[in-house]
Every structure is written in structure tokens, then in C-alpha cells.
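dude i think i finally got it to work??
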Amino acid sequence: MKLICIGRNYTEHIAELNNEKSEHPVVFMKPDTSILLKKMPFVIPSFSNEIHHEVEVLVKINKIGKHIDSKFAHKYYDEIGLGIDFTARDLQNTLKEKSLPWEKAKAFDGAAVVGDWLNKAMFQNINHLSFSLIKNGDIVQQGKTSQMLWKIDELIAYVSQYFTLKIGDIIFTGTPSGVGPVSSGDRLEGELEGHKMFAIKVK
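look at this
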């Protein structure tokens, strides 16, 4: 099982980090060891002083696929979720300055929160889902899948050109604006269309 992550998929988030808009989706990977275990807190790693939260809609692949046409992509997933792509922003910025890969900043142990899953049949249109991240009772990130530069089916089609998608693979579809630091003692909660999808503590 692999985690396939999409960067720069929301215009306002691109602007807040002063990044350039890409011609194609930005794709990076996280290993399964980056998944935060259920009921465990997120522990801030010793190698970073600036861990940022990035809430994202998730898609779980339900069958093997390669070179998937976007018009058939909807057949490759039944479940929609919500999670966090934790990022060691200070480390990432250093790596980017040196044109080095991001893995140490994005794929470390516990860097991926995978919340509960909901059947996509519950939703009238997955391209019009609202979601949010709540930190210590305050909404810090809000987004809608309608704001994505590349929609879910387009992402599945795109990444399947490069990677064979297998059952259980998870796609992180990108984060909206509002990313920011987490501190020890924080409580983070994610909501998707009014459904509470996860709640974690930061240590």
C-alpha cells in the first residue's frame, strides 16, 4: 500500500507559500510507515521546529489500474476520507533551496493522518464537498473540492500514467489555504460535510 500525495492543487495555497502554479499536478509519495497509528498522538519530531498541518480529502483505491481514462476513474474508488499531510516546513524549505527531494520533510514516521472513510454514494457530487480542520476549537483551514485545480478523477487518471494503482492505495488530493504550525498540546479535528473524520492530539 502506498500514499500518493498531490501538491499545489488549490490556487490560494499556492499563493500563501509563494509557489509557482504547475502545468501538471505535483506528485510525491509517503511510505505506509508515515501513517499515524489510530488513537496515537502526533509527536513533533526532534529534527523540525516548524511542523505544519495540511488537511486534505483522501481517496482509497479499490481495484488495480494503470493508464486509467478520467471518464472511468470513478470506478476505481468507493470511499472518501479526510486526513492531514504533516510537513516539516523548515526542513522542506531547506531542501527546496538546494533542489533536493522532499521526503525527509513529508514522509517521516507519523506524517500522515488517515481518518475515517465514508461511502462516496452518500454524496450527491464529490466535486462539491466541504471540509475543514479545527485546531483547539477554531477553524484554521476550510476548503471545497470544487476549488481543486485538478479534480479527483483527473488526479487518478494522471497518477496512473506513472504508477500502477493497487487496492488500498490512498491518494491525498491537496490542501487548501490556511496551513500553519502545530504545537505540543494542540488538538486537531477534521470534518467532511459535517461528519467528524478524525481527532488527534499533538505532543
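Residues 87 and 106 are 5 Å apart (CA to CA).
im so relieved honestly
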